[in-house]
Specification:
The protein is 30% helix and 22% strand. The protein is α/β, with parallel strands linked by helices and 303 residues long. Helix 6 runs parallel beside helix 7. It is globular, with a radius of gyration of 22 Å. The model has no long low-confidence stretch (mean pLDDT 95).
């Protein structure tokens, strides 16, 4: 019996038992839902993107690794058909990495010394793309737009925040756990290219409870406009009421006004303003500020 046959027999034995779960290393190139053929109809191109950085502040920290997987999908069916491009690159940040970054990513100063991203290759991928996908786009988008401004004109979608994982009975939103729950896969995480491939693997799966396709569900959510409501000058004694309604407090550290705020689907904007008028402001909502957000500015500095 060959090694492959022995492994397959062992996997079948484990799967037959309720005491074990078998995880497979993701090989996205061989994913059963990738046909490898061009779309027979109207096609668009998406980019799965991930970054590794020197820290968490895009205003002062630097990207040290970028991973991108470009894929083609059918506009009508929302089916991903094939991988059409890849990019993986390092860039020297000009200063030693912290021990924490080295520990998490496995990237060392020697690996980065004298390295630079291929601007032409990355910008070419951005130029042909119709949408960018990230797992935690709120983190990746500001970083990538500062380094590659071409990404600022693209719509973005986020698997971390734009899928209702709680409704799918999922208790953790890390990419590794979601791959396990949706597809039974694992990846070597915390490296940009591996995570970009892992993200595509997740998009190719179905949600664990509803069974709806992850990619189709995300696309439907990401394209919907939202309204950010800033309850500026709300009375102090209304804070508990606002917290119950899931408003969040902005302390002004990012240069924005100190206030309670909430994102709602744009079709619920009038309903929320009515609540604020009746329950918080006593009929006068003139100090409330509305910011209308779509996929082109969502998760960016412009949000």
């Amino acid at each position: 019996m060959s090694i492959a046959e022995t492994l397959q027999e062992a996997i079948q034995l484990l799967q037959a038992s309720s005491n074990y779960k078998v995880l497979r290393k993701l090989d996205v190139e061989r994913h059963p839902r990738l046909t490898g053929s061009p779309v027979n109809g109207k096609a668009k191109i998406g980019l799965c993107l991930d970054t590794e950085t020197t820290g968490f502040k895009y205003e002062e920290d630097k990207i040290i690794e970028v991973g991108i997987v470009a894929f083609e999908y059918d506009v009508e069916t929302r089916e991903i058909t094939r991988i059409i491009g890849r990019y993986s690159g390092f860039e020297d940040p000009g200063a030693p990495l912290s021990p924490e970054v080295i520990k998490v990513t496995g990237i060392t100063d020697d690996m980065l010394a004298g390295r630079s991203f291929d601007n032409d290759e990355v910008n070419t991928l951005a130029a042909q793309a119709n949408c960018v996908f990230a797992h935690n786009a709120k983190f990746d988008r500001p970083f990538i737009e500062r380094r590659f401004p071409a990404f600022a004109s693209l719509p973005w979608a986020c698997t971390l925040s734009q899928i209702d994982w709680a409704a799918e009975l999922v208790t953790s939103r890390t990419l590794e756990y979601l791959l396990f729950k949706c597809g039974g896969y694992f990846i070597d995480a915390h490296r940009a290219y591996n995570d970009a491939e892992g993200l595509l693997g997740l998009l190719l799966e179905d949600l664990p409870d509803s069974g709806a396709p992850v990619f189709k569900t995300l696309m439907e959510t990401a394209r919907k406009p939202t309204t950010r409501i800033h309850a500026i000058g709300s009375p102090f004694d209304s804070k508990d009421l606002l917290k119950e309604r899931k408003y969040r407090w902005n302390d002004g550290a990012n240069g924005k006004p100190k206030c309670w705020w909430l994102d709602v689907p744009s079709e619920q904007e009038s309903e929320e303003l009515s609540f604020l008028s009746e329950s918080v402001y006593g009929g006068d909502t003139s100090s409330v500020v509305l910011s209308r957000i779509n996929a082109y500015c969502r998760f960016s500095e412009r949000e």
